[in-house]
Amino acid sequence: MKPLHALQDSARDEAPSAWLADRRDQGLELFDELPMPTSDEEVWRYVDLDFSLDDLSLPSEPGAPMSDGDYRIESGARAVILDGYVTSATSDEQVVVKQLKDAAPEQLAAAEESAIAVDLDRFAAAHYGFGDDGLLVVAPKGSSSSRPVFIDVQAVTPDTLSLPRILLLAEDQSELSVVVTFRSPEDDTFHVVPHVQALVGDGARLLLTTVQAWGYGTTAIGQQRAVIGRDGFFHHGEAGIGSRLGRLHFSVELAGPGAHSEISGLYFGEDEQVLDYRAFITHKAPHTTSNMFLKGAVEDEAHSVFTGLIRIEEEAQKVNAYQTNRNLVLGDAAGAESVPNLEILANDVKCGHASTVGPLDEEQRYYLMSRGLDRVRSDRLQVRGFFEEALNRMPHSELNDAIRSAVNEKYVRAQEEGRQ
Amino acid sequence: MSTALAVKGLTARVGSIEILKGLDLEVPFGELHVIMGPNGSGKSTLCHVLMGKPGYEVTGSAMVGGTEVLGEPVDKRAQLGVAIAFQYPTAIPGVTLRELLEELADQRTDGADLGARVADAADRLSAGPFLDRSVNGGLSGGEKKRSEIFQLAVLQPRIAVLDEIDSGLDVDAVREVAEAVEAMRNPEIGVLLITHYNRILQYLSPNKVHVMIAGQIVRSGGPELADELEDKGYAGLQAELGLATEEEPVDEGDDFLAGL
Fold first, then answer.
1. Quick one: pLDDT band at residue A14, thresholds 50, 70, 90?
2. Residue A267's domain spans which residues?
3. Per-residue pLDDT at B140
4. CATH number at residue B179
5. Range of the domain at B109
6. For chain B, how many structural domains are there in total?
7. Where would I find the H helices in A12-161?
8. Does some domain include residue A397?
9. Closest approach of chain A CAs to the CA of B55, in angstroms?
């Protein structure tokens, strides 16, 4: 185990790849300078960070992997990241999956375009300062693969900080499909700062599903960034199921004219979970479109936060952007915040948002019970239906059964234990 | 033998507004009765009060097959044999009608029979198109009505109440709906059809017609009462019965009540 505060001198010499070496100094410097975020800052509002990165230790080697999880899918290309170390990477005929240190210079240059800012916050700085090598997934120009790449990210050594890094590169006119699952054992304590960055080239398509199935002792501070080129298409599905504190800061930049992004997702918080989604959608080019559709539920004493900012820059005319966030609050002690924001600098755009927070619908309950269903079953059906709309929009329908059961089981369990 | 529905002295109020003012009504098993009334007479309220929708202060009695249903929760009333085809059925996003009925079959001890009736009624009432779509979601007006009638056919209640099942339908659809209502009739069930217009009556053979005004049944008679109404209009009948028309306090269409 290597505590972060003891690591700073040695980390400098150990950058595993050229890509990282450039950023390592800056990361270390900023890690020193930046304070731990507090809930006084708008982007950390509602979240109580009850730990300091300085006290955490990195695992010196990857631990033993978990057995296959519920979200495993058939795939050709695949990879495993254990405790922040890439332990396996398998390509197939279409898609290249390898460690970052084995990347070609032009691939590194492309990855550069979608890099997560080192000064985003102290977590990003720590990532660049202390993270090991990352995983690079490349769909070469013009290639088309409908089989998803399956990336299994695990934190397995208790009481450690892991810093997994994934770079996705859908080169021009390519088609790439990726499923990432995040897992950790149920009972121990883990801290994880996953970075996922994606570059969608001109005319390329990227389908990405991320499943946060962390154990309930895990604090996951995720950071993601996607940059979409001309006529590119990015469809991201997110399922927030696990973790004690699960935060996802994700930004999508529609950089080329005609780019489109579709973000769909669902999350379910129980017990004392905190799920914190910060979405930043930036339209930088004309004729770009974006649509976000997130649905969440909280029960027990869980708390969820959604803040979404759609920013449309001055030169981004003829833009169409929409975000929807709907929340079910299933318990008196549970809470949900939904804060959509628009920042529009262009003058010829269509932009809107819809946001709701509320309990189960009385009219729906009445209708279902009027057919003879008891209240427990009526409510269960309503919750199921609520998430079905989000599931129908997810990019990888083969995961829907597993996500659907995970979410529904939480509610059924709460009903059976009399918490609902 | 007990009657399908026996309502006595039924009152219902929402806050200070009295909507049903001592309503009496009997529908024997095997019979089809029609309630006609102008907007605001309390027709939809009667449905919701029989079904047990929260939000009403209710007194009086409503027996279904000899069992008092007032005071029971909504699902218990359904189990006792009350079923409503709603005028404005609520959409349940993300839940298909098939899933709803499967959940019901799973709950009920006679689940297998229910499943068989689903198959039978789906075939008979061409319910295929909406069985696998979300409940009342994205359905046309006519499809919603057919979906409601289909559910009643599956549920086999003791008293089936059809609330303005004919409104908003074209002539062909009205005839289809009427045929489905006639097909539902049997000696085990009483059917109560509530309507604003007598258009659907030319396709039905009701045993009785009741006129409801301002929360009461003011006249009952045979099918010829509908024709009389057609001639005189509600206002004419009200005048004849010595009922002041201006007393009608509120238009209590469903939309109004939904907000309460």
1. low
2. 2-360
3. 84
4. 3.40.50.300
5. 5-258
6. 1
7. 18-33, 105-112, 122-130
8. no
9. 11
